[in-house]
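Long-time lurker. I teach an intro course on protein structure, and each term I like to show students one example going from raw sequence to a predicted 3D structure in token notation. This year I'd like something fresh instead of my usual example. Would anyone be willing to generate the tokens for the chain below so I can use it in lecture? Attribution to the forum is fine with me.
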Amino acid sequence: MLSDIEIAKQSEVKDIREIAQKINISPKYLETYGNDKAKVSLSIFDELGDNEDGKLILVSAITPTPLGEGKSTTSIGLVDALNKLNKKAIGCLREPSLGPVFGIKGGAAGGGYAQLNPMVDLNLHFTGDIHAITCANNLISACIDNHIYQGNELNINPKRIVWERCMDLNDRSLRNVMVGLGSPTDGVIRTDHFNISVASEIMAILCLATSFQDLRERIDRLIIAYNYDNKPVTVKDLGITGSVLVVLKDAIKPNLIQTLENNPVFVHGGPFANIAHGCNSIMATKLALKLGDYVVTEAGFGADLGAEKFIDIKCREAGLKPNMVVIVATIKALKYHGKVKLENIKEENVEALASGVENLAKHIDTVKQFNLPYVIAINKFNTDTDAEVNLLIKWAEENNHPIALSEVFAKGGEGGLELAQKVIDNIKDTPEVNYLYDKNESIESKIEKICKKAYGASGVTFGEDALRAIRNAKKEGYQGFYICMAKTPLSLSDNKKLLGAPKDFTVHIRDIKISAGAQFLVCLAGEIMTMPGLPKAALAQKIDIDNNFEIYNLS
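-- Reply from a regular --
Happy to contribute to a lecture. Here you go:
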């Protein structure tokens, strides 16, 4: 089979104006970037305000493995399949970060015959949104250090600056740095830290904003430091909200591109789900709902992280209710959770599959706790044996789990027709969502409910830094914030080595960071880091370009 980039190059890319016309977007609202991508002006909401919302389908997954489960691929294939069934379906996905593109995971444009176009542009600089977020983040950092150097009128304590710099690459050497070194005119010497750009709170608030005015108010609230009286200092105090907004003026507009089968997809925003809330922008999702009958979106990693935050944070903040959840799994991944080593993963192993299916069962349990209908999507590979497929289907039927085989990677929309029909048959018009916690209960209780209900933990412990942060959050009036868990995506627990569905484990919260703009508390569990590092064999060593500007090995 051809590589992803070879398939993308051979596909027909239609003019983006034609794609927009399919969902009734007038050319006057389009700001084109070449012929294959466009931003959509926010003024379109004035025209669409009375349109009835379509149905919202969330694509989630089991706990990810090194093999890849194909959540984005399934989402894109489902959009194509629903359109083949004459449904007006639109995709709503996140933008890829350059960190994974050049690191170990690769791009995020789908795979095989269920991809987005332009695949190369999407995985690289796209329309510049993440660069704008990086610039806005670092503009704040530059103004903080300049303010201190110029006399420190706000009485900022340099040892209590909580705003950190960022860049959109994996660079472990920048996790802990010293700034201000050199001559007396080079600033104040202090420690600083870099996050990957998609972990910046600027990314979070861009994706949670419901309007340009709402974005302004969120930027105003961003806590950048504490003064010598231990009071929070905000971007509004620094007086640079307008400048930050100027940098983000285009980044806030949703991006429209297409699938290989020329169906519309909005790709906008890209916070990681293990260190942020893991969903595309509210504005893109709301726009798609006004334009389509079905909107297919996804949230990062498994249901324990992405789906939980999508429902508990994004949907509540946006006033949305998902109508259906698709839970993606692969037989290879389930065998991995059944303790099969990677080198043996292609060999038939029904016993390991039967054991690993417990991981899928826990994610189903989490979705059920939200009171939402679901369908299991088995992303099928040619190494899956009949015995393994039959065992999984039998298990699902015996437990009354709707299930469908998906072959969108190899067949595109045609390979997703069974899944699309199962979604249509099981979707609810007006679901009553049960959230995992009430926003106004105690911080400790909210964290404990997520850990017990979504992860299956037996309890939660808090480190001294976390307890101190909880006291500060209560004192400053932030107790009613959402909880945004930051933990390993590789396990239901906070220990990446615990595969399957571990039991009798506790989650340790070592620290909590207040994100006043996003209005959530980021709870750091285990060894989670906000600046990844490159692997020994990084994809950056394989990607190349020739003299005709043809790119190779981008996946």
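Some talking points for your students: The chain has a mean pLDDT of 95. The chain has three domains: 4-127+251-426, 129-247, 443-525.
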